[in-house]
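User: Modeling request: complex.
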Amino acid sequence: MSPEYEIRIPHFYCLEYEERGRVMVLEIDFRDPVLYLDRALVTNWQEPDHELEITSADKARILTNVYDYLVRQRGFDKVELDLS
Amino acid sequence: MFGLGGKKRLQSWVVALALVCLTILPVPASAAVELPVAPVSFTTQQAAVEYYLALVEQLDVTTAISKSVFYSGPGNRKLAEVYAIAEDKTTLEMTPGGKYLDDLKLFEQGSPLKPDQATRVWSRLSQRYAQQAAGDVFCFVTGARPSGVFTTVELPELKKNRKVGNLYNVSRI
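Assistant: Request completed. Predicted assembly structure:
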């Protein structure tokens, strides 16, 4: 079964996360030797969904999906996930 | 309509105009220097790394004096970009070489480089960007991590760089 999200890395400084037609940009600097994924990265959906509330569970799900994509699917080996 | 003399004058104007355009129009990064031609595929992973590391040495990341802007840490890239545009300054990705390398999407799926190799290539370009900086340098680095590229690569180069004057943490002004 294919995942219910899509992830792209269009620039060296960000990652695009898409889920159910909604798109979010996470500001991750891929030049950094270690990538840190924490709740501060998950801010808002892009227009026209930018007013939608993002719950704590949403943030945890998105970060877990991004971590899974980077580490398990793409082979990034220095990624720290902080869901606290 | 122009007569013979008129035609000659018109031709002269066209040639002159073409020369002016060639002089003032910006030259794309790829045309400014002769870049190595990218193979369709690389025979080995090492060949790919060597190609991109050689490419990085030829990319134009120069900025004018007191025009370089650096950033690191959450939320700082956008602030740096807005500041750079408003103040006629430049971030790495706004240089011809930075834009060229960014357009190659080396971190995207299907890249010829593994993630750590792409990081190495970008780290070298960031180092070159710091090495070429001159005059005052403007940084958006509040909240930057000690392990980030700014702290480990760019800042040490800026401190070594004798052409650099003051380092401003703009986000704190």
